[in-house]
Amino acid sequence: MNKYIAAFFFLFCLIPACTNAREIKTAEGYSLKVESDSVENSVPVQTDSLPKPNSIKPQSLWSFGLNGGYSYRLPNAGTRSDTPYSRYLKELKTGFSIGADAHKFLWPHVGLGLKYNFYKSKGEYNTDFKDDVSIQFIGPSIVYQSPFENGKTSVLAGFAMGYQSYKNSARAYGEDFTLKGSATGWAVSLGLEQKLGDHLALNLSGACYLGTSYKFRKKMAGQTEAIKLSREDFEELSRIEITLGLKFLH
What we know:
By secondary structure, the chain is mainly beta. It has helices at 2-17, 84-92; strands at 23-25, 31-35, 38-41, 62-73, 94-105, 110-125, 129-147, 153-172, 175-195, 200-210, 212-213, 215-220, 223-228, 235-236, 239-249. It folds into two domains: 2-50, no CATH class; 60-249, Porin, CATH 2.40.160.20.
């Protein structure tokens, strides 16, 4: 963008000094004959090769987004049976998520930054069973932005890898306890972004978070116990979501 502004400024300053010139060469090799301030003969300049206005608009250097929506945890081994409690666990998979991200575009279409997501779901079964589940994800991310020809709508694809934490304030058979765990997580996303102005955009996206935890810390009655689950009884942290958000551009 800077080179086009510099070229425009240079030509703007050059025109008054050349009003008495007999001949001006254009970028395409055509000649414009001028005498004083009137044009005697002119040849149209070819503009097919000139950049379109939208193609020379600069990309935003920074973007900061907030989003929220519906989320569903992928089922694991504990929900594959057909019992009243397993059906309760399946219903518990549905929750909501909120998130935030910030990226700096070091290249025209590629940005590097940080992504955060928070998932929440809770429920109660026969007063003897209760679950209040929170899963958080945070990690570095990369996004690729592909704008449409209108310059206002873009397709966004993202990938992130980071840390996931798991917490469940639960009750089982009338006894309250807290279960905590963690795992490495991955996130992939795809969405559409519509600019509402120079500094604001609306974003609709879908994302998938992947992660599995086998080790937990169980705290009950003031005592902490380490728990290691088998491959068959793992806790699935993976989930899918669809969110609507706002993005602030700078």
